[in-house]
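User: Mind token order:
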Amino acid sequence: MNSILGIKPYLNRSQPLDEDISITLKGSYFLVLIDILAKLFILLLGYALFMASHRETDLGKHIYIFGIWLLNFLVLVVTIYYAMRRLKGIQVYLKYRIIAFPSYLQKQTSKRPEEHKLFIYSSSNENKLFISFLYALINTLITSPLLFLYPVNILYPLILSLLTFIFSFFIAWHFGCIFIERKILKAAFMKKELNKAELQALEEGYLNKEVFVQDTSLEFWNDKFIIGLEKDFNIYKEKLDTFLLESVFLGALTFTTYIQLISNKENWREFLKTFTRFISNQSLHIWNEHSLSSSIGFSLLLAGSVISSLFYMVILLKRFPIIKSIENVRWLLNMAKYYNTKEESEQNIYPKEDYSKQIQFEIARCEEQKIILDSNFRIISMLRMAGLLSFFFVLLVATLMIDIYFFAFSTCLMLYVVVAAKLMEENKLMKFIMDNRAINKTKKNERKFTS
């Protein structure tokens, strides 16, 4: 079955047509598992917060349940987005690697690189009807239970559950084939399939190898070190600018919140009264019927806004030592680039060796300054994280003062934003999820070459 109601799988071909390179990759449902676990977490958190509230009115509960239901679909959209990005990354990576593969060059040499066509086939296209049904069933069971906790009538959750199942089924039917890993099962050049030996030579002998230049000369590695240091310098500079901009805006925002709170004498008296009762171990009125009490809430807002402002103020005060370290690295890097230019223009071997030694000296000093710079940035990053957590604390306390359901939805949304922002960084988790290369084999090849 190739289509249902006119909807076809994203990679809907099973046989090569007019492409130059045909690659069949192994299906991988790691991202789907993350999607299911994230929705399971949302279900448990949503249920716990729902049961913790004893609000008697209906509107807040209905809005909260419907918001959690929509949040699950937002997680699904993000999962599909990352799977699509990974698929396109694999497609581009394989195309520009394979066009330089010797066996392929012998068959196709008359085209420019951008004219070569590559199509990805997925092994997950097999049993796609069963897989789509299974995912739709699991997604419905995880997404819909909260709808039955507080229904207007029984038809309301049943209709939404049915819509969830139908939507999940067609999403899995169309996009299920994009969840792949870079494990080549079959390959064909100009519709001619590679045999087992040729496929092994392509994947293990070529694609899993990333170091081809076997130049061990000091001049070659000096050039690489300088390029790497220049990249690190630019990253440091942009990171510092980002930290300073964030400190100015968020620090000013939290301090403005503090000023506005203490400008109201009633809020200030509530804070002093609450603080006095807390110090003297007297009982505190913490919770209203469905929200945090105003006395506790304003006290927490005052404390959180002051703490956040202080952390961001320390970051601003710490900026000069970091700027000084960055300028030192810039000066040493420019000196290394200057001596490298002189080395490349020198014809005599002995002055050339002296220039190489001088370059190594400047690079060594750069690396020494980088250690100082890294330690300063670690301190700044910890202060920034503390200030950011205090800022989020202020926001969540404000939502809890309004309504517990608003707080619950804001908490889920904040966690989603934090996780999404973390995935944008180049960290180990992101490399594990998104990298198109064989990471372990790459590191093994690099160790072998550098040893």
Observations:
- The chain has two domains: 21-207, 218-402.
- The first helix runs from residue 30 to 52.
- The longest strand covers residues 180-189.
